[in-house]
Amino acid sequence: MPYNISVGLTYGKQTDDRLDTNILQNGNPVNVLNRREENIASNFDQYVQAKLGITDSVDIHAGARHTKVKLEVNDDLLTLNGNNSGSVEYQKTTPVIGAIWKVTPTLNLYTNFGKGFETPTFIEAAFDSVAMGVASRPNLSLDAAESNNFEIGLKSFIADNTQLNLTLFRITTKNEIITNQTIAGRSTFINANDTKRTGAELSIDSDFDYGVSTYFSYSLLNAKFDSDFGAIQSGNRIPGTYRSQVYGEVAWKYDALGFNVALEGRHNSKVYVNDRNVDTAPSYTIFNVRAGFEQSLANWSFREYVRVENLFDKEYIGSVRVNDGNALFFEPGADRNYLVGLSARYKF
């Protein structure tokens, strides 16, 4: 039975000097230093993964990774809240197992199960409170989120020119890191109890005669809190997550001139803006267009391109500020905007 085994090590370290200053207080300009510190993040991972062909049409694979992440804060502003230096360390071993069944030369079925381990970032651990609009202490008490991830899907050529991908998934998470409060541009984060995500992802990619192609994708996400947590009720939707997203494009290319053009469309459903689900940003649909030329000359390749985003200049909410303490949840999307570019590449 054919097999392969891979082992590896990953090490990373990042050091940031953080300086944070209040520029407004009660609407008046100020210049108050409230954070001066060094943030150090490091990780050391070891992993093994393997694949085994148990028959000509069935492969199984499995693996495991041990992760160790350390966050360290060296406070250099002792006159504000005293010495807030400290560190926290996270460790976990996460396995994964899956299988692929090659039903026919044009149809594959697959399934995977794995455990997830998501540690806080320094953005999430920056403050333990923003209630007064002033930075306080780093929040090194956050737990890592742990999840169980399951998916089943297929990849198939449903015609000579069309490929279909379909995935169904279910994710359950404990101690998910969520936004607690946002005030004056600063956010605090907290561990929720249980959350659950179920959904599907579909894509269809087709190539036709005369340089015409189409692409369509749809995602369905049912992301909910799966237990009561403070004022959050079990069954509430996780804010900032779109229940449905649709993308489609029609493209044409003319190889003789190196020309390509495409019309894109994107739709996002309404989205809740806070954990209690008392307000939403409405759904929206926008269209974009792109076009360009490509040329090759000896070892050189050139590309000129232009994009027009939000073609019909639609007014819409492009993003939300989850759990904003001043109820300033909504951020407008950009008006019609343009991007023009030129790239050159030389191959030695």
Describe what you observe in this structure.
The protein is mostly beta strands and 348 residues long. Helices cover 1% and strands 67% of the residues. The chain is built from 1 helix and 20 strands. The radius of gyration is 25 Å and the shape is globular.
- Gap from first CA to last CA: 41 Å
Number of helices: 1
Summing up helix and strand content along with how strands pair, one would put the structural category as mainly beta
Percent of residues in β-strands: over 45%
Tell me the strand order in the biggest sheet.
Answer: 1-2-3-4-5-6-7-10-11-12-13-16-17-20
Globally, the shape reads globular
| N to C succession of SSEs | EEEHEEEEEEEEEEEEEEEEE
Largest sheet: 14 strands, antiparallel
Rg is: 25 Å
Mean pLDDT: 93
Number of DSSP-assigned strands: 20
Low-confidence stretches: none
Report helical residue fraction.
under 10%
Q: Keyphrases for this structure?
A:
348 residues, mainly beta, two-stranded antiparallel ribbon, 20 strands
Helix-strand layout with pairing:
Blueprint: E1 3-25, E2 28-53, E3 58-75, H1 78-81, E4 86-104, E5 107-118, E6 145-159, E7 162-174, E8 177-183, E9 186-191, E10 194-207, E11 212-225, E12 244-254, E13 259-268, E14 271-272, E15 280-281, E16 284-297, E17 300-309, E18 317-320, E19 330-332, E20 337-346
Antiparallel strand pairs: 1-2, 2-3, 3-4, 4-5, 5-6, 6-7, 7-10, 8-9, 10-11, 11-12, 12-13, 13-16, 14-15, 16-17, 17-20, 18-19
